[in-house]
Write a structure and sequence with these properties.
The chain is an alpha/beta fold. The chain has nine helices and 14 strands. The protein has a six-stranded parallel beta sheet with strand order 5-2-1-6-7-8, sandwiched between helices. The longest helix has 18 residues.
Length: about 325
């Protein structure tokens, strides 16, 4: 049995990656349509050996379609995802708009696939923030054995997290520096080339940014509401691949050797941890892959039960498109 699938935001970086992932996993598609704004009507995108002409989202009727994978931006999802859901089409939304809605499951299949059970409440499933996804995939097997009490995480996030415009800005500014041109930031608050910006999303009253808040509340919704999370999110001049330095405090002992063994046997995790030059993962290494990579595992002796690790993943693949397609696979296998 095949499904009728719509990809919304098909001309964006994540939309392209979703189409690629659907083809890569050989998702059972009987019919597929690429949707975007009126400005993209008639543009062509690839799905395997097929070429799809983009249709206008605002005029599209979702009646009869089974699954819609959305990545068009929060405001667009807010308007059109409920319209698709009300027509009977299950929406998998990659924006932040529905994530904290109590009636909308927030899903990372390796972590809380069981939470899909309530998806018919709204007919909408939320895909978490890219940085949250890779962290909880790595932490889930550890939390199951030795409950996590507190997480302190610093992220080093690629410019592709801001879409194609973010990548274009890094390219222009890097090229411009060598041509003695002055940088004029548009997508980021200050120049990103050869820089690091501790500011992703709007600032909140407590001094946190919205990106940092998302890591806190999404981790609690997906993994455990009692885990305390402190996050600092930084944009760095990397095109693809988010990195995270994660410090974990457990409620009970967990030996380093056991933690390594748990991670090596965890679904979706690859441990690359040799204590030598290049014996660790970098975002360049992870780009194009679907795994969550873990390196630099070591005990934190400043707390009774502590562990440090370095987590890297492709934010466009596992952090967005791949996770969305994994959710679609889980739906097809368990509920459809």
């Amino acid at each position: 049995m095949g499904y009728k699938v719509a990809v919304v935001g098909a001309t964006g970086a994540v939309g392209h990656a979703i189409l690629e992932a659907l083809d890569e996993v050989d998702f059972p598609v009987d019919e597929i349509v690429a949707l975007a704004s009126s400005a993209s009507i008639g543009k062509e995108v690839s799905f395997g050996d097929e070429t799809l002409k983009v249709k206008e989202l605002a005029k599209f009727d979702f009646e009869g379609f089974d699954i819609a994978l959305f990545s068009p931006g929060g405001k667009v999802s807010a308007e059109h995802a409920p319209r698709a859901a009300n027509s009977g089409c299950v929406v998998i939304d990659n924006t932040s708009h529905f994530r904290m809605d109590p009636d909308v499951p927030l899903i990372v299949p390796e972590v809380n696939r069981h939470a899909l059970e309530g998806f018919r409440e709204r007919n909408i499933i939320a895909n978490p923030n890219c940085s949250t996804i890779q962290m909880v995939v790595a932490l889930k097997p550890l939390h199951d054995v030795a409950r996590i009490k507190r997480i302190v995480v610093s992220t080093y996030q690629a410019v592709s997290g801001a879409g194609q415009a973010g990548m274009d800005e890094l390219y222009r500014q890097t090229k411009g520096i060598y041509q003695m041109e002055e940088a004029h930031p548009k997508e980021f608050p200050v120049p990103i080339a050869f820089n690091a910006i501790p500011h992703i999303g709007d600032f909140m009253e407590d001094g946190s940014t919205h990106e940092e808040w998302k890591m806190v509340v999404e981790t609690q919704k997906i993994l455990d509401p009692e885990i305390e999370v402190s996050a600092t999110c930084v944009r760095v001049p990397v095109f693809v691949g988010h990195s995270e330095s994660v410090n974990i405090e457990f409620e009970s002992p967990l030996e380093l050797e056991e933690a390594v063994d748990l991670l090596q046997n965890a679904d979706g995790v690859v441990v690359m941890d040799r204590r030598e030059a290049a014996g660790y993962i970098t975002p360049k290494d992870a780009a194009g892959d679907t795994a969550v990579f873990v390196s630099r595992l070591r005990e934190d002796t400043t707390v009774p039960y502590g562990l440090n690790m370095w987590i890297v993943s492709d934010n466009l693949r596992k952090g967005a498109a791949w996770n969305s397609v994994q959710i679609a696979q889980a739906l097809a296998e368990d509920y459809m």
